[in-house]
Structure formats: C-alpha cells, structure tokens
Specification:
heterodimer; A: mainly beta; Immunoglobulin-like; 4 helices; B: 231 residues; mainly beta; Jelly Rolls; 17-stranded mixed sheet; two-stranded antiparallel sheet; 13% helix
Chain lengths: 806, 231
C-alpha cells in the first residue's frame, strides 16, 4: 500500500449513500497498483464488492502530457479485476487513470464517480494517479554474493535481507529460486534475514553463471515484487571462469490455490458467493508449463464469461497456450482485449510470429420479455417495431431482448528483427459475428485489418524511431449478405462491373454490401498511422509523435481507440541539479474532422508542465504542476451555429508532497492539493470547478503496528442539469483511519479501518480482518465489513479465504 | 457476551504487550558473517568466545575478533559492510525503530574497512572506539583504532568525526583523514597515498588481489588488462 497514491486510499471510502447500492461505481472497494518504476509495466488491481452488476471493466489511462486516455479491458475474475499498464506509458511524474464499469444493459459509470456524462468521453474531475519513480526502491537486499561476483563453490553463501520489504509483503511467503529451482524450503529464515549455503545442503553448483531469484508476495498471494542476482561459480582449483552450465534437474514446479467463500447482506438481501482460483508453473529442461483457472458462482449463461482458464507450454523458441489471454499487438491492431482461444508466440533468430485465435464475445441468446397470442402480433409490432419477435408455438408469439452474437477473432503478426535495435512487423486481423450463434440478434458485424509497424534504435538506444500504420474495412450489418449482381446493376448505374470485381475479390475476407466502410479509397477514412521519434541527450528525454486516425477506422481488437483525430504530441523530461530536479513538459495539438465531413473542425490543445524535486537530504519530495486543456471548433458562441459551438478550457494546478521522517516512530506524510476549473463559453455553460485537499500520514511504530490516517476535503461545483448555467455544490469530507498489527510475527496479522464521510455523502465504513499463516505456504484470511448508510439500510460483508502454495 | 468481549480484549492487550517485546528481541539478527577466513571468533552476549563460521547471524551485543592473517566480513541487514582485518575486535549493535535500522560498531582494537549503504531518514551508522565516534552516512573508508589514537580514512562521502575526551567534532570529507587522540586533539588532513591504499586494501576480501597493467600497441593505442589472482 505504500505506493498507493493517497488519493486512492481516500477514495476507497467514498462510497455514496443515496441509491448507492444500485450504482456500478459504488461496487469498487479498493484500487491498488504495484510499485511504478519508469519504463516498467505496472499492474492495476481493482477490488469489487460481491454481487456487483459489472460485466466489463475498462481501465482508462494516460501518460503525463497527453490528453487522450488509452483503454484496456480489465481481466475481471469475480470480485477482482486487473490490467497491466504497458511500460511506454509509465513515465514520471505520474500516470493518470480511472475506471469505467459497464453492466449487461450497456450502462456505464466511472470510478472515481462522475456526473459529467458518458465516462468514456468525459473523464471524472478527480482522476486517480500512480506516482512513477525514476528508479525502483530495492525491497530485496542481496547481502551475498555480490552482483556478478565470481565465487568458489565452497565459499558460496546466499544471504538475503528483507529489511526494506514493504509492510504489504507476507515475508513467510517469500520464494527463492536458484537457477529457477525452488529452494525456499532449504533456506533458513531468521528475522529479516534469509540464509542458504548450497554446499551445506549438498547442492553442487556447476562452474559458470547462476541466478538467484527472490519473489515477494502480498497477503493476497499476489506477486508483489521480484529481484534477481547473477553470480558465477569458478571451477575448484582454477581461477578460470568457465562457460555457463545449468545444472541438471528434474521437474520443478510451483503453484497456489485460493478458495474463497463470502456472504453479503446488501439492502437486506443475503447472498453467498464462492470461488476457486489456482495457478501453476512447471519446468523441466527447456520446457516450461503454465496454467491458471478461476471458477466462480457468478458464472451465468446470460452474461459474458466470468470463469477463466489458461494452459500453456513454452520453449526458448515457441510459446503456445489455450484459454483466456490478453494478446499484445501494436496499439492500432489488438491490445487490452480478452480472447478465449489459441495464443502463440514464436521466435527464431530474427524471425518472429505472434498469433491469437479465438472468441472475444460469447453468444448470449435474447431473452423473452413477453408472450402474446399470434393474432396480436401486428399490434405488438406497431407498439415496438425495434424489438425482436419470434414464434413460440403455432398459437403464441414472443417479444425478445436482442441477444449478443458470438464474435470470433483471428490476428497474426509475422515480424523480423533482433527486437533490441530494430524490428519490422506486419499484422492481419479478421473478426466477425457468428450469425448462427443466436436466434434473436441484430446487426451482426465484420472487420478486417492490415497493418505494419517498425522500430529502430541508434546510438546506444539514445535515438528511437517507431511507427505503425493500419487500414481497416468494417461492415456494420452483414445480415443481408453480399451484394447480388442484380442489386449492383439496379443501384450502381456507373461502373457496376468494377464493383462486382471488388465484391468477388473481397467477399472471401469480408461481406460486401451497403454497410461496408470505407466507401472510397480516396479519402482513406479507415486508415490510421502514427510515427514517433525519441531522443535522449544532455539529460533530456524528448519524444515527438504525429498521429492520424480516420473517422471510420475500426478494429474489433481495439474497440476503444479514439478515431477521427490527427495532430502532434511533444513531451520532454529534463534532469537537472544532479538528478535532484525533474522538469517535465507536454504539448499536444490534435484536431478532428479528418474526412472534412463535419461543419467545423475542433482543435484540442493541451499543455502540461510539472517540476519534481527529490532532495538528497531529509527534506520533502515536492511536485508542482500545471495543465491547460482547451477545445475550440471556431464556431461563434452566439452565432447561428451556437448549438454546435465548442469553446471550453480546463485549468488545473496541483501540488504533491511526501516527507519521510522519524519522530518517535517512522512516518511518511503526504500532502495533495489540486484545483481545476472548466469554463464553457458556449450556450451550454457546462462549467465545472473542483478543489481537493488531502493530507495523510503513515506511521510505522516500534511495535509491529502500522497506521494510516488521512483526511480529504472535496469541493465540487457541477452543472445542475436543470437550467443552463445553473450549478450545484457537491462538497464532502472523508476521514480514514487504517491499522495493521502483527500480533505474532509472520503468523498472525490483524487489520482494521474506520472511514466516516461527511457532507453531501454521508456514510461510515468499518472493517476488521485477520490473516493467519498456518504454515509458510498456507494461510487463512478472515474479513468482515460493515457499512452504516445514513437514511438507508446498512450492509455487511463477511468472507473467508484459504490460500495454499506448493 | 460481555465476558467474552473482555476475554478478547485481554487477549489482544496481551498480544500488544508481548509484541512490544517481540519488536526488538535480544536475539534478533542484525547481520551476519558473510565471509570467515582462518582464525575468526564470535562471542554472543553473555557467553564465551567460540569459533565463527560463515553464515552465522549476529545479534545486538555480539563480538567478533580476528587472529593473525585472518579476516572477517560482516554484512548488516541494510547491506552495510564491515571488514575486520587481522587482529581486530569489535562489538555490533543494531536497533530497529519502525522501518529505520541504526547500527553501531564498537571497535576495541584493529583496522576495519567499511562501506555503508545509503541511510534512510532517521538511520545512522556509527563507529565508536574508546577515543572517538564516527557517524557515517553512505560512505566508504577505513577506521584504525589503537590504544593511543584513532585514524579515519574517508574514500567516499563525508563522516562526522568526534573525540570522546574533548567532545570536539568535525567533518572528514572524501580524500581526507581524521586523527583523534586520547589527549582530546582532533584534526583532519589530506590522506596520503599510503593511507588511500590502506583504505582500499581494508575493503578487499583478502582472497583476491588485482593487478592492473596498461598495454600499448604499436599504433600507440592503450588498453588496460586487469588480472585477479589469489595468494
């Protein structure tokens, strides 16, 4: 939790009162991230209350200096969801993000809460942030051997200190591997120290290179951080370093199983939830095996899959697996999308191949809304002509909700390059709805894509050029099938033969009819490309990007990419004062109307600047920043096109500070102040204002007790939604006190929290929990929570989780 | 119900009190002997001297000494390192407050090399001798304690150096040597080449020695050849 921004800690307890339990966003009980280090991917995890109605969760994130949020589908497993932020967006000083939850009806809500319309278009005023460090704080300290040391077999002593390990780490769950062989059971745990002498254990290490890997896990059994050390063993009696030799070993494996049962009493309705999760990894010689499985009582045939599974095998050249996976292709092609099916990656020298084949949407049959006599059909149809109707028997008809077609996807990317200094790839993606998968559906669709990408690095990677381009074809309704010759002759008076030729050529890839885009190859409305140049010289990291995405660009592998946009993005990060000061600037100018089909072109301008000071002395770390986002389509606010005018600007200032100090105990104090104001000069007068102040202190006492106290004040002015220009205030204060106490070191941990919220949101949340490590590899966790909802019924949650590691 | 609550409360309070003791138990390891060559002894607090072995943990109050031509390396759990050269004797102490780990090495006699890991807020690494106190933060060097005077050679960073008899104090920067005597005098001067070499040697592990040669080819280009060898 140390790395969790204070804002997150505070927001965890901001669950509203009135009608809250019916809302999606209130299901979020916890948002955490791993330690974020520059240019290293980081996992964001979301915990949800049981019984939530969310069927899909999107993570929307953006690196410093850019306006657009990238979107990724989170891996939703019961009451937990996670997604990995790619390394290229993890840049100091922070990454901003929020979460959008969708239910089966397609309703969307943002977390943190927002009332600014569609959350995919309008982000909430208070975004979550992950502070990004320049360098990782070493949580695992290797005392011996030294990194890269050459040691004699008899002198080898592996010793590790967990002095700096985070309080979220379950030390007894620490895993140690020597050359990928799990040797944890042979290690001696003594306080913060872990000691292992291979010679004393009868382990004979061959001369050459060897690796020690240490994995730290949090109390939920998730990998928290991992460290690695390389050393060399010299042949006894010689001073010559021999080549690397991996010792012979049999089948090595590790895995874990988690079983959870939970009872919730929400709105006076009690429900049990049960789930089992398991993960497995094994290795013998060059073969590696992985598998995971998640089974939940939430799995229902009328919603998208909630169970998850994957099984895979890997060699140094080929990795293949079957099940739920999240393939990573170029951003324009396929990214952040769950695919259930085959996944393969092959590498041989400079040749590479990535392949994904499977289902991205499961078929869900339309449901019967009502049945009626056959002779009432015309009446019912006139009443709701957009509904689906079907015959139940000779005398009865039914009205149905439209179902969801099963959607298949195939993506392949052959590539060539050493992947260190150069690489060129080519992508193909085809995807479509299976019309036979359900009876009651509407507008089945198809999509194909061809693309290419490249990367080149020069001068010791200080110059980096990257680019990608893709062209798509998209059919929004294939139910009528391909054009017939008669249809073409009757509708297309000019050049019907050419159209027939194109149809005959394309129909093996995609259905050709009136609903196919692009309509013309002259405007290139389904083209997208972007090119970037990065330079790292004189303490500066500069990056320039030009991007273009046509208005009809569509990839089923990347559903949430913003289209109809083009422009430049510039960012620069400068290190000053012997790496104690970091200045970051971002400028972005994008515009829409790429096909010149709109009455006006909107220009999106964005300027960001931030200065971060990391003093070497015992002084606070401070970040001061400023952002300005403006949108303008040049239409006069009071002219004849005033209803189409877009003229607004958002100004943000923020100060963040943290300070480590010792006063009786060890403390980390944090301060966040931010203010933002959106001014809408159009007749809509959609003005917003927000002031947020947060202070917090985390204290580690001499006794094994950690407390976190935080106070946050939120002052919001929002449009009333009744009369234009009229605003309402939404002000509240949240206080949170959390404690974690180790009753018996490495055996029994207690935790508890109380979090009252005052003002327009009124509620108090309290929870208590205990985790008992029965053995180093087995634990039981009990948790209960109580929610006092002012004016509504109270809620409670009780859960028991069992975890076993092999 | 009330009595049950009372029992739970008593149990929790007992846990709190017992953990106050667990937080800094007398035998909790603060470091270990990562290397032991020839005659090295260790003495646990309240016990007698015994032969030391590689990998043995050290707790507060433990003593370590080396015999002639012997060497020991102590690694504290924050990765701070102390080399005991031959005929040295010291006592180690460590306290953990919250996440802060402060260490003290009381040198009875002999030469020790040190390389101290970056210290966090509230942390300290301190060398003491009957004559002097050196407060160290993220530095390297050597400390030589004798019955008459102490010599502190600093090769990296800066060290607060104090004389216990006169209570005088000064900062010894990298490349300088501090001298502290029993008559209370305390001074600093530029390290001699011999002292710099001695400090570097004090940090070597005693097994491997390095020979560095500068080679020049017929075109005049130079390159360096490093050879690591053992006596």
């Amino acid at each position: 939790m140390k790395n969790t921004p204070l804002a997150v800690l505070v927001v965890l307890f901001l669950l509203p009162v009135d009608g809250a339990l019916a809302q999606l966003a209130s299901a979020v009980t916890d948002v955490t991230s791993g330690e974020a280090v520059s240019r290293t991917s980081v996992t964001v995890s979301v915990a949800l209350r049981e019984g939530h109605a969310a069927t899909a969760i999107l993570l929307l994130y953006r690196p410093f200096g850019t306006r657009e949020f990238r979107k990724a589908e989170m891996d939703l497993r019961g009451s937990a969801a996670s997604s990995v932020l790619p390394a290229d967006v993890v840049v100091p000083p922070f990454v901003e993000y929020y979460i959008v939850l969708s239910d089966a009806s397609g309703r969307r809500e943002a977390y943190p809460r927002s009332s600014t319309g569609d959350p995919l278009i309008a982000p909430p005023p208070q975004l979550l942030r992950i502070a990004v460090k320049e360098e990782a704080e070493q949580q695992v300290i290797f005392l011996s051997p030294d990194p890269g040391a050459i040691v004699s077999p008899g002198d080898l002593l592996i010793s590790i200190s967990l002095l700096r390990a985070d309080t979220a780490v379950a030390r007894r769950a620490t895993q140690i591997k020597l050359d990928d062989a799990n040797i944890t059971n042979a290690a001696v745990f003594s306080g913060d120290l872990i000691i292992l002498s291979p010679e004393n254990l009868g382990i004979q290490l061959s001369p050459g290179k060897h690796t020690v890997k240490v994995g730290l896990f949090n109390t939920k059994g998730q990998l928290y951080t991992a460290s690695e050390l390389v050393f060399y063993v010299r042949r006894p009696g010689t001073e010559t370093l021999l080549s690397s030799t991996i010792p012979q070993r049999g089948f090595e494996y590790d895995g874990n199983v988690q079983v959870e049962s939970r009872h919730e009493n929400i709105s006076n309705s009690g429900t049990w939830y049960n789930r089992v999760g398991a993960q497995f990894k094994g290795q013998t010689d060059i073969w590696k095996f992985t598998g995971n499985m998640f089974v939940t009582s939430d799995e229902k045939s009328d919603r998208q899959p909630q169970n998850r599974y994957f099984i895979g095998v890997e060699t140094p050249w080929v990795q293949a697996g079957y099940g739920d996976h999240y393939p990573t292709f170029p951003e324009l092609v396929l990214n952040g999308k769950r695919v259930r099916g085959l996944q393969t990656t092959a590498r041989y020298g400079i040749l590479g191949l990535d392949l994904s084949l499977g289902e991205i949407t499961r078929s869900v049959e339309g449901s019967l809304i009502k049945s009626f006599p056959a002779d009432s059909f015309s009446v019912e149809f006139k009443r709701d002509s957009s509904a689906a109707f079907g015959q139940i028997d000779t005398a009865t008809w039914g009205k149905y909700n439209f179902g969801t077609f099963a959607r298949k996807l195939f993506a392949v990317r052959p590539s060539i390059g050493n992947r260190q200094t150069w690489e060129v790839g080519f992508s193909w993606l085809s995807s479509g709805d299976d019309m036979n998968s359900i009876h009651y559906g509407i507008k089945p669709q198809e999509n194909i894509l061809v693309g290419t990408d490249f990367m080149a690095r020069f001068d010791n990677s200080r110059i980096e050029l990257t680019g990608q381009a893709a062209m798509t074809a998209y059919n929004s309704d294939i139910s009528s099938g391909n054009f017939t010759d008669a249809y073409i002759d009757s509708v297309y008076r000019t050049g019907p033969e050419g159209i027939k030729k194109v149809r005959d050529y394309l129909k093996s890839f995609i259905t050709v009819n009136d609903n196919l885009r692009p309509l013309s190859l002259q405007e290139l409305s389904t083209l997208a490309y972007q090119i970037s140049a990065g330079l790292e010289y004189f303490g500066n990291a500069f990056r320039a990007t030009y991007l273009f995405r046509g208005s009809d660009y569509t990839s089923f592998g990347q559903s949430f990419l913003q289209t109809d946009i083009r422009g430049i993005q510039l960012t620069d990060r400068a290190r000053l004062l012997d790496n104690q000061m970091f200045l970051t600037f971002g400028f972005e100018r994008l515009e829409d109307n790429t096909a010149k089909t709109k009455p006006a072109t909107t220009v999106f301008s964005n300027f960001n600047a931030a200065a971060t000071w990391f003093p070497r002395r015992e002084l606070p770390t401070v970040t001061v920043g400023f952002s300005r986002y403006s949108n303008d389509n040049s239409l006069a606010a009071n002219g004849p096109d005033s209803l189409s005018a877009i003229i607004d600007a958002t100004l943000r200032f923020y100060v963040q500070s943290s300070y480590d100090f010792v006063a009786g105990a060890r403390h980390t104090a944090t301060l966040n102040l931010s203010t933002s104001k959106r001014t809408d000069e159009t007749v809509r007068k959609y003005d917003l204002a927000n002031v947020t102040g947060e202070v917090g202190i985390t204290t580690q006492y001499a006794i094994p007790l950690q407390t976190i106290l935080s106070v946050a004040v939120y002052l919001n002015t929002l449009p009333s939604g009744v009369n234009r220009g009229e605003t309402v205030d939404l002000n509240y204060t949240a206080i949170s006190l959390t404690g974690r106490y180790t009753l018996i070191r490495d055996v029994l941990l207690l935790n508890g929290s109380i979090a009252p919220t005052f003002g327009n949101y009124r509620r108090t949340a309290a929870d208590l929990g205990a985790e008992w490590f029965v053995r180093r590899n087995m634990s039981l966790q009990f948790q209960c929570a109580f929610f006092y909802n002012d004016g509504n019924s109270n809620d409670s949650i009780v859960s028991l989780r069992y975890r076993f590691t092999i | 119900m009330k009595s049950t609550m009372m029992r739970v409360l008593v149990l929790v309070l007992c846990g709190v009190v017992s953990n106050s003791l667990i937080a800094a138990p007398p035998g909790a390891p603060i470091g270990l002997l990562s290397k032991v060559i020839l005659d090295v002894s260790r003495k646990e607090s309240g016990k007698t001297w015994e032969k030391a072995t590689r990998g043995q943990t050290l707790a507060t109050g433990d003593m370590v000494r080396t015999g002639p031509a012997s060497l020991a390396i102590i690694k504290f759990k924050d990765n701070s390192l102390v080399h005991l050269r031959e005929k040295a004797e010291l006592t180690v102490t460590g306290t953990t407050t919250g996440g802060s780990f402060s260490k003290m090495v009381e040198i009875q006699t002999g030469v020790v090399g040190f390389n101290v890991a970056k210290q966090r807020a509230g942390e300290e690494f301190r060398f003491t001798s009957p004559t002097s106190v050196a407060s160290i933060r993220g530095t390297a060097g050597a400390f030589n304690a004798t019955s008459g005077s102490d010599t502190l050679i600093v090769t990296e960073g800066a060290i607060q150096f104090s004389n216990r008899f006169s209570s005088r104090s000064l900062v010894v920067n990298a490349g300088f040597t501090g001298l502290s005597k029993r008559d209370g005098t305390l001074q600093t001067r530029t390290s001699t080449e011999q002292e710099r070499r001695a400090a570097a040697e004090a940090l070597q592990d005693g097994q491997n020695k390095k020979l560095e040669l500068e080679l020049r080819n017929p075109q005049g280009k130079t390159s360096r050849l490093k050879i690591e060898y053992k006596d």
